[in-house]
Every structure is written in structure tokens, then in C-alpha cells.
Design brief:
2 copies of one chain form a homodimer. Chain A has 213 residues and is an alpha/beta fold. Chain A has one domain (10-205): 3-Layer(aba) Sandwich (Rossmann fold). Chain A is 46% helix and 12% strand. Chain A has 8 helices and 7 strands, in the order βββαβαααβαβααβα. In chain A, the strands form 2 sheets. Chain A has a 5-stranded parallel β-sheet with strand order 4-5-3-6-7, with helices on both faces. A two-stranded antiparallel sheet of chain A has the order 1-2. In chain A, β1 and β2 (8-9) form a beta hairpin. At the A-B interface, β7 and α8 of A face β7 and α8 of B. Chains A, B: Pfam families: Cytidylate_kin2.
Chain lengths: 213, 213
């Protein structure tokens, strides 16, 4: 089923990404190139504002706290109640509701938040962004501000941990694995490449994929 | 190290593909869009002609006979001699030599033949083409001529077998797995899509990837 808004097919693009691969930058730049909004961290702020949660707490549990009970029709694994916290349940449900509301408003790019699964009934185009360890390490080092002093080993450990959490979060309500190419329509390896330089072609690809050119 | 020919960086694109995903068509059309040659089945004919092998026999062993000994610097797994045939060794070595010669002549697209590994010192751009089972099945049915009558079950079995052989062939001389996104620069899911419609964007992506735009 293709969801249409006023007769025009909606272009919903989701970006899943390995930590340090430049996926967030790719999402933002792609949205700019297509002239549509991009939702990333903003989603957490919106959830906090709309549902009255504490912003810092949301930031802590979102995509990190895998002890989430997800009692909707798209859930297929229910986690044992003793592993859950009521608030993390509420946040996940609120976040997913907001993602659906945002997508129903019109074309957009959504980064992370397992949006490819949350929105699957809207037939989004799902992109996965990845890179080799060295490129991800370089990207993390370049974007760290002067006050952060982590060793390469510490950064690598953190990168692996975050990707593991993303995969675990997704696995709660979807059988298709996070990061496996079969779960996505296009997988982009950014190793050694500038994201900015690739954007015009990625934007073209998205337009052609939605048959709007 | 970037191999250059007359001072211009060479654009070598390799296409690896799941059987039935449309990878061959994508390779041919991409080469046309870029105005460069595409080598696919022709390679086997050239090997037969150049080295005096029987065409039918080559067609039988190429990418199918995994009992190949590959005694060059890029080999990392040597198969027990009792599993080899001398002729399959000769054919694989000849094929790989020819692929290197073709690539050194100038920009080109090479489909299959583990060209991404054979040419890795020339820094090719490596694309993987895949699709879901239903799309691959439909593609296989559509391209079968009237004289072929296979059941869906038979086609699926054949598809799996061919992909398995491709993966096994590659595994002889490379640690990076066939079909894993980490082994490629771009992975394109053709499920439910017309290859032709996607080509302009893929060609753009290749041009940008090589920094020639």
C-alpha cells in the first residue's frame, strides 16, 4: 500500500547508519538537496516537549535502553516485564507515534530511530550508511571538540557499543537485522569519501527510485 | 596506489550480483551510460580464443568449479592438490590475467569473475546488486525462453546454488565475503524496480565517486 497525500506519492527516506559513518550528515544534506525536512535529534526534543518528558532522560534512553516493551501491532518480541521500565516504554511509544505523525505531514528524511520499521506501512526508501573502521575513526576524531581527549581504542570501543545498541533496539520489533543489506534499498559505503560530494547522485537516485523524474 | 593511464585516473567498475537481481543488465547499461566497454560473458570467449581452451568447457568451469588452485601473490588459501584439476587452474589463471589486461587498457565495467578481487590493486569501484527472492524469481521467469519449463521451486534452487558457487569461488582467494556490504562501495537493491530507470543516478554516483564531475 502506498500512502498518498493529496494524490502525490509521499517520499519518506529513512537513514540507518553506523556510528561515525557520516549518516547523519548524509541525511541532512540529502534533505536539503531534495528540499524536504530532516528529522534527527529534533525528534527527541519534540517528544520531550509534546509528552512532558525530561530531555536529558530521553536522550539517555532513546536507542540506548533496549529494555523496552513495545505493545503495538508491529511488535513481535515482547521482553520480559522485569527487564522493562515503565518510562522507557512510554518514551519509545511516544517517539514512534511522533515519527508516524511527522511522516504523515509530508516528504521527509528521518535519521535513526528505527524509522524504517516504524514507518514500513508507508513504504519508505531505506538507506544504510557505513564505512570502514579507519574512516569512522577519522570522522569521530575530526568532529570531537578540543575538550574531548579519547584514545583511538576508547573511540573504537564506543563506536562498537553504539552500533550494538542500535542493532539491539531494532531487534525488539523487527526480524530483519540492522545493518544487513537485505533490510535496505541502498547501502552506501562512505569510506574515504566526502559526503558532500556524493549528495547530488544520492538525491538523483532517490528521485528515480520514487519515479519522480 | 591509483593506477593511471596517461595521467588520467582509470575508472574500473566491478559488478558482483545475486543471480536474477539484474546485475548483468545493470553493468551493461551503466557502461553504455558512461560510454565505456562492459565485459561479461565475452571474457570467457576471449580466454578460450587467446589460450586455446574449449568454449563449452570454460563455460562449465568458470565461477562454477571451485576446485581451483590460484598460485599468485593475491592468493591466500591454497586448496589441497587432490581437489584440483590442472585445466581449471589454467583457466582461472588465464581468466584473471585477461581481466587485468582488459582493465589496464582503460575504463571499463566488469561483471562477475571476482573482478573486484582480481583488480584490487587498481582501486576499482565495487558495486553489489541484489534483490528479494520474489523479484529475482520474476526476473528469471521473464527472461526464460519458451523452451524452458522450470517450476518456481527449481528456479529458486538453481538461484541459490549459483550464488553459493559464486561465494565459494571468491572465498578461494579473498577473506572478504561475497555479498557482504563491507566488501563493496555501493549495494543496490533492485527489488521491484526497473534497472533502466535507475541507471542515470547510478552513473552519476560512479562519476562523483571517481571525482570526475
Amino acid at each position: 500500500m502506498e500512502i498518498k497525500n493529496g494524490g502525490i506519492m509521499m517520499r519518506i527516506i529513512t537513514i540507518s547508519r553506523e556510528f561515525g559513518s557520516g549518516g547523519r550528515e548524509l541525511g541532512k544534506r540529502l534533505a536539503d538537496a531534495l528540499g524536504i525536512p530532516c528529522y534527527d535529534h529534533e525528534i527527541m526534543d519534540m517528544v520531550a516537549e509534546k509528552y512532558g518528558f525530561d530531555k536529558n532522560y530521553i536522550s539517555h534512553v532513546s536507542e540506548k535502553d533496549i529494555r523496552v516493551f513495545y505493545p503495538t501491532t508491529i511488535a513481535h518480541r515482547l521482553i520480559a516485564p522485569h527487564l522493562m521500565t515503565q518510562q522507557s516504554v512510554s518514551i519509545a511509544v511516544s517517539e514512534h507515534q511522533l515519527i508516524q505523525e511527522l511522516a504523515q505531514q509530508g516528504d521527509c528524511v528521518i535519521v535513526g530511530r528505527s524509522a524504517d520499521i516504524v514507518l514500513r506501512e508507508m513504504n519508505p526508501m531505506n538507506i544504510f550508511v557505513y564505512a570502514d573502521w579507519q574512516s569512522k575513526l577519522n570522522r569521530c576524531k575530526n568532529r570531537a571538540d578540543g575538550s574531548e581527549h579519547f584514545s583511538e581504542k576508547e573511540i573504537l570501543k564506543k563506536m562498537k557499543q553504539i552500533d550494538k545498541e542500535r542493532a539491539a533496539y531494532r531487534s525488539l520489533f523487527c526480524e530483519k537485522d540492522w545493518g544487513k543489506k537485505e533490510s535496505y534499498h541502498l547501502c552506501i559505503n562512505t569510506s574515504g569519501k566526502e559526503i558532500k560530494a556524493l549528495i547530488p547522485a544520492v538525491a538523483d537516485y532517490v528521485r528515480l527510485w520514487f519515479g519522480q523524474e
